[in-house]
Design a protein that fits this description.
632 residues; alpha+beta; 6-stranded mixed sheet; 15 helices; binds guanosine-5'-diphosphate
Length: 632
């Protein structure tokens, strides 16, 4: 598991002094950090619980969180890394041991919840890590100037020696500011960002939120804020189009705070830079601010000496060259000749190229390159890993394919039923929800209803809410964040239904509020535990009864419909039920078999009832765990 920022932070400078004496906080009496032992923090903890654990006012915790770009309410659950960070920032020591046994890692490949704040990747050697360039995604409402801003950034700050025009897209652009590199992903927008995240990729260190000063916070601005927040990626606001006469920065700043983005000028921690993509004004300042924010909140690190790990940002099939993929190397060094596994495909790196098509022998952390040599075209967001050899690669790919097959059978993501199991196992304390409603009024009514739901220690966390139809975008966010999508008076549009099925994202649609809150509450309380449902598998007619010993009988039978398997049995004689029992054995000739289909003969042995007669009908049934019927 990746080391959290909290683990290395202490070496970076003096801890912030406590700003509040014991008497100013009413009933709270904070312990002097120096006298307090190390604090053990569980895998997930609410702000309120953390405040109690540490012995400070919850407001202090919230303030510290805001400084890190996290806006949490008092009852919101935060993960251990975040909690440790805040606790350390408050001057307390955090124990390396984890208070909650559930926090022990399960050996999963991808962390449960990408935090976007992990400076060291799993497998990096802490003694070898170096600072790498921050990777930045530009987000914002359509026409607010995302593309223009990216162009302006590339124009003013293309790294030395890179001039002369880009010849091929490598999915990301490296620029330089004061001699320091930054990498911008070429595809702006939270759609691409979240689609990648839904595949497990976590590439972005900083999100630049572009807001047109003459237009203000619009629906996609709000979405972008939620998407960045769900990924725990710090935001830098680029207030664009400042050259326009009707630019109204104050209005935009107020609107941002209404959406929980508190800019520095208003006492918050989110930096805002006024820019004009058209004139180039403020671009240098923006780059500077991104670097400062990255240093302060992310401090991205990588280990250049290890085997590479990266993410595919674009890929296509080229007639002459086969699968062409742009890879963003996140840690390690990727070399020609390396064997790599990418999603469910693998290959040997035949060539690496830069944006000019120049062949490179290797590519280090935070560099984007074209990779040739994969046997199939991977998907954007697929994670690339260097492995020992082709044998290892093949084994990993096989296993992934099996796992993927399992997932498509619906065992993957968060569902309401699944949530119950997670609560029971102590693995989660919240139900994450993406909420869509037809109009603002009903959205308000639904959130109010959800707020009323109280259950022990488990709560609903609405990651994103909005009006309108449920789109692919909502499904991707849900998939990336292990959330369920709840729709009120709304529907799935476009390919959203298909995506939801493919991703295993649960979507629940309602048109009555009390039904909605009833089911959410039931989910939290574990009432949606799967039901045992009886399924009739088939019937067989007894043709001949063989006595085996005194008390046992085998019924030579003919399967008239469905199939006969080991499971429950009901025996009917002249249309009347005369016994309920279990089928212990099913035989074809001398062999025990798992099932016998319609039109075949078989021997059926029941476990308790042996008074079978010719002409009896044996009905075979099984019980299956079935999710309780959801309204849809
Ligand atoms: P995107 O949809 O967010 O990528 O927005 P674009 O970059 O395509 O820009 C949308 C429109 O706004 C285009 O007509 C741009 O020329 C214009 N635009 C972008 N930035 C600025 C700016 O700083 N000032 C002015 N006046 N226009 C801008």
């Amino acid at each position: 598991m990746a080391r959290s920022r909290s683990g290395t932070r202490n070496t970076r400078g003096p801890r912030r002094p406590m700003r509040r004496g014991p008497n100013e906080s009413g009933s709270f009496h904070p312990v002097d950090p120096a006298q307090r032992g190390a604090i053990e923090i569980p895998a997930s903890i609410t702000v309120k619980e953390l405040a109690e654990l540490v012995g400070v006012n919850p407001a202090d915790i919230i303030r510290e969180l805001i400084k890190s770009g996290i806006f949490a309410t008092i009852n919101q659950a935060i993960d251990r890394d975040t909690a440790s960070l805040v606790t350390t920032d408050l001057g307390y020591e955090v124990s390396e041991t984890v208070a909650d046994s559930q926090a022990a890692e399960g050996g999963g490949e991808v962390p449960q919840e990408p935090t976007g704040r992990e400076e060291i990747m799993e497998g990096d050697d802490p003694t070898r890590v170096v600072t790498r360039a921050p990777i930045v995604t530009v987000m914002g409402h359509v026409d607010h100037g995302k593309t223009s801003l990216l162009d302006a950034i590339r124009k003013t700050s293309v790294a030395a020696g890179e001039k002369g025009g880009i010849t091929q897209g490598i999915g990301a652009s490296e620029v330089e500011h004061n001699g320091r590199p930054l990498v911008f992903l070429d595809t702006p927008g939270h759609e691409a960002f979240t689609a990648m995240r839904a595949r497990g990729a976590k590439v972005t260190d900083i999100a630049v939120l572009v807001v047109a000063a003459d237009d203000g916070v619009m629906p996609q601005t709000a979405e972008a804020i939620d998407h960045a927040r769900a990924a725990r990626v710090p935001i830098v606001v680029a207030l664009n189009k400042m050259d326009k006469p009707d630019a109204n920065p104050d209005r935009v700043k107020t609107e941002l705070s209404e959406h929980g983005v508190y800019i520095e000028e208003y006492g918050g921690e989110t930096p805002l830079v006024a820019v004009s993509a058209k004139s180039g004004m403020g671009i240098d300042d923006l780059l500077e601010t991104i670097l400062i924010t990255s240093d302060a909140l992310v401090d991205p690190k990588a280990d250049p000496k290890r085997d590479a790990v990266g993410t595919i940002i674009e890929a296509e099939l080229d007639k002459g060259r086969g699968a062409v993929a742009s890879v963003l190397v996140q840690t390690g060094t990727l070399r020609v000749g390396d064997v790599v596994v990418v999603g469910e495909t693998f290959g040997k790196v035949r060539a690496l190229e830069d944006s000019h098509g120049k062949r490179l022998p290797k590519a280090g952390p935070s560099s984007a390159v074209i990779l040739l040599g994969l046997s199939e075209v991977p998907a954007a967001g697929d994670i690339l890993r260097v492995v020992a050899d082709e044998k290892a690669a093949r084994a990993i790919v096989e296993e992934r394919k099996l796992k993927a097959a399992g997932r498509s059978e619906g065992t993957g993501r968060a569902t309401l039923e699944d949530l119950y199991r997670q609560i029971q196992a102590g693995q989660t304390k919240e139900l994450r929800v993406i909420l869509k409603a037809d109009v603002q009024g009903s959205l308000g009514a639904v959130t109010h209803a959800l707020d009323q739901i109280q259950t022990d220690g488990v709560r609903i966390n609405v990651l994103h809410q909005g009006t309108g139809d449920i789109t692919d975008n909502d499904i991707n966010l849900a998939s990336a964040s292990d959330a369920v999508v709840v729709g009120f008076n709304t529907k799935l549009v476009g390919t959203a239904r298909r995506s939801a099925e493919a991703e295993g994202v649960e979507v629940r649609l309602y048109d009555i509020i009390y039904k909605l809150s009833e089911e959410m509450e039931a989910a939290l309380r574990g009432m949606l535990e799967p039901e045992e449902v009886e399924v009739v598998e088939g019937r067989a007619e007894v043709r001949q009864v063989f006595r085996v010993g005194k008390s046992t009988a085998i019924a030579g039978s003919y399967v008239t419909d469905g199939r006969i398997v080991r499971g429950g049995a009901r025996v009917y004689r002249n249309g009347k039920l005369i016994a309920t029992d279990r089928i212990d054995s099913v035989r074809r000739f001398r062999d025990d078999v798992r099932e016998v289909a319609t039109g075949f003969e078989c021997g059926i042995g029941l476990s308790g009832f042996h008074a079978l007669e010719e002409g009896d009908i044996i009905e075979c049934f099984t019980t299956q765990m079935v999710a309780r019927a959801a309204r849809s």
